[in-house]
Amino acid sequence: MELPSIRLENVFVRYDNRDVLRQISIDLDEKRIGIIGANGAGKSTLSRLLNGLVLPTEGTVHIGELNTREHAKQIRRQVGFVFQNPANQIIMPIVSDDIAFGLKNLSLPKNERQVRVAQTLGELNISHLADRETHTLSGGEQQMVALASVLAMRPQTVVFDEPTTMLDLRNRLAFQKEIAKLSQRAIVVTHDLEILEDFERVLVVTDGTIAFDGPPAEAIAHYRQWSHA
Amino acid sequence: MIAANNTSYLARIKPGWKFGALLVLSIALYLITNWTVLLALFIFSAAILLSARVDFKQLRLPLISITIILGVVFILLGLQTDWLNALRSVLRLLTMCLLAYAVSLTTKFEAMLELFQQVASPVRFIGGNPAQIALALSMTIRFIPELKKVYTEVREAQHARGLANNPLAVTVPLVIRSLKIADETAEALDARGYDSEPAKRRF
A11, A62, B155, B200: most buried, per Cβ within 10 A? Predict the structure, then answer.
């Protein structure tokens, strides 16, 4: 799968005259990218820029040739987003209907949707959840369903915003395995530093800027040092 | 209640026919005054429900609630009018409930939504969007348990801090948290490519 380059050029994001992100200019080409940093540092805002959920106050974000300001709809087909709290991401009351929801938005015919739903559930080994009511799922199951609903849309990139925060150890490890298996590019915002061990690149976000950008071991060391300061 | 993967003969009947039959039967029940016919129809509806291979664990609580409510209705009507009239009313209501359970528990939620969308399609003429209405309906059903969970959490937190029953103290955090959920869900709808423009939607 050829992955389009993600380019942020001189990006500023401001809320109420406060700079949440300042002068971010980066290219993201790797397949596994982590984003770490303290609470309120701007990690989630940075991740939301990547599929147009947040638009830059200044500067541009490009996914391949597409600009998030002008092509948000096309970009959301290419860049999936898994939120921290899966309960609020699941829209429909039945698992298979929820996974089909995004596919309806892509205007796929019904039979194709059914095949895609079954395929995606099978890939994540959660076919047994297909007919379950979504509110009866455990946290780990909800997070897997949230991932399935994004993967069913066959995005080229999946952005995860602290996906393991609400999971126990067993579910965290299972989810970590699923991220590792993805053929898509994965950009993971996390406080769970273990997830990042096999990643190619990790960004450390501090006070709205990228304070460090490099391989995981060095990035984590930098983050630990910053946290102790 | 939402249908799981029901495989009975009722599940194979088109939702439009099932809901149509339910509507016609419900109206017909009020035209019948002979209690023996009503009793026969009640037995018939129970047989339909029993033959529909539904999950009776799912039905236990609603059936208990309905029995209690209709018990009260029977006593009140019996005291106010006469006992035969009370029996007729309760038989009608019970028959309707059993048939409604049989229909809803053998119809997939997606199929129900599609039917709802078809029925609501005339709202287009007054500028409405049936797809949006169907989505709102499904999200209401989806988020009722979530809001119940939030309510329980708020109550527990307040009990833990020694606060007795105080409607205002429950309402404020409940509304704030509901708004936060609404905000996050709106973001999720965006992220999943939801387009609210009617002309381009094929819900």
Answer: A11
- Distance from the Cα of B153 to chain A's closest Cα (Å) equals 15
Please tell me the least confidently modeled range out of A20-24, A117-121, A201-205, B120-124.
B120-124
What pLDDT band is residue A2 in, cutting at 50, 70 and 90?
A: confident
Q: Closest residue of A to B202, CA-based?
A: A107
**Nearest alpha carbon to residue B202 among A105, A100, A114, A112:** A105
Q: Which of chain B's residues have a Cβ under 8 Å away from the Cβ of A133? A: 2
Q: Report how many Cβ contacts below 8 Å link chain A to chain B.
A: 82
Q: Is A83 in Cβ contact with B188 (below 8 Å)? A: yes
SS3 sequence of A41-85: CCHHHHHHHCCCCCCCCEEEEEECCEECCCCHHHHHHHEEEECCC
Please list the alpha-helical segments (H only) found in chain A.
43-49, 72-78, 86-89, 95-105, 110-123, 139-151, 169-181, 216-228
| pLDDT of res. B133 | 87
A73 vs B146, B184, B195: nearest CB: B195
Model pTM score: 0.81
Asked whether the beta carbons of residue B109 and residue A92 sit closer than 8 angstroms, the reply is: yes
Q: What is the rounded CA–CA span in Å between residue B16 and residue B18? A: 6
Q: How many angstroms separate the CA of residue B12 from the nearest CA in chain A?
A: 17
A107, closest residue in chain B (CA to CA): B202
Q: Is the ipTM of this complex over 0.90?
A: no
Beta-bridge partner residues of A160: A82, A188
| Residues in CB range of A9: below 8 A, 6 or more apart | A25, A59, A60, A61, A62
* pLDDT average, residue stretch B134-146: 87
